[in-house]
Amino acid sequence: MATTATVKWMDGMAMVAESGSGHGFIMDGAPANGGRNAGARPMEVVLMGLGGCTTFDVMSILKKTRQQVTDCVVELQGERADAVPSVYTSIHVHFKVYGINLDDAKVERAVKLSAEKYCSASLMLSQGNVEITHSFETLPAESRHPN
User: Where does the pLDDT of residue 147 fall: very low under 50, low under 70, confident under 90, or very high at 90 and above?
Assistant: First the structure.
């Protein structure tokens, strides 16, 4: 299964990325590196991609187990090497799952299955020697305040 994407340089360090499905966004560098801070940094996009991939899995699994999820927020914390290349050395993924009568065991299982079996981004990064850890908390639906 092939996927495609294009990245077109605009100016400075700004780029427009477009997926094969036709969705795009701007990436840019920090002003200290010649950018204008007009978009996410490319390595931040890697972190966000991991978050999206694992959220997709966890939500699919929780839906199949009939959990009444009302919201899910995934917080990611990545540590990068100080030397070039400044690769991720570790990433922590924390799920905040909001819902009605959530079963902690089912949420834990969904997170574990995503991490160990389904999340392509997580599995790929961990094969590249990135230590990826996971945690979760279940919270009542009414405790979620809109941002």
Answer: low
